[in-house]
Please model this.
Amino acid sequence: MAHGLFNNANTEKALIGVVHLPPLPGSPGWGGDMDWVLDRAQEEASVLEHGGASGIIVENFGDVPFRIGPVEPDTVAAMTLAVARVKHGTDLPVGVNMLRNDAKSALAVASATGADFIRVNVHYGVMAAEEGMVQGDAYATLRHRRSLGVEVKILADVLVKHAVPVGPQDLGQMAQETTYRGLADGLIISGPVTGQPAEESDVAVARKAVPDGFLLVGSGINEANAARILAEADGAIVGTSLKRDGIVGNLIDPERVKRLAEIIHELGPYRSS
Model:
């Protein structure tokens, strides 16, 4: 499990801030200046650390449209540079999210850079997304991690945002399957899309299904709803609400980071009764 990943996990909930990278080489929006991309990633990571974040996750958010499965080699190369820059400049745990669902490349980047964890949108099961059918491959991901000889934690979404289940799905059962059969180190519960919060009831269902698991909320957390939605969670992955004016394409706002970090840390850790 990932309980020990964040230094203060035993005394407070974790705030993992997202560094949304602009378009990388090969993507339609690529601007041609990798140094600018790296400098921006480092600056945003610094804002998160100084604002009180517990960890940082870097993702190729600007590479729309995404594809299912392996990303291009130029994306892997650019992500490796960006994650390495962030990792070199912080003492916080750093993670990798390779959109959309390229866990093998995410592990490779983490292994090369010393990153601490990856986020996998569909680790176990099948989801239908705008880009097509997303098939989890816990079998290959776990074996690839073993072959690399690294201890990178796998934080896995359960019924991930921007996708719908293929047929009826029980969230509690999927949480159990992802943990006990998919061997994920932690679970992520999210709302329907980026910036929209998870339902309290969904968090409660996942917690009941995996009482001792490491459980994060992966979308929509802000200053107004953090205390309510995170009551039974161990923390949150937050991007949109940390941006200036709460707009996902804007830069991270230092004051928003500080305010949300104070709220989340003051909640204290989740403790099962």
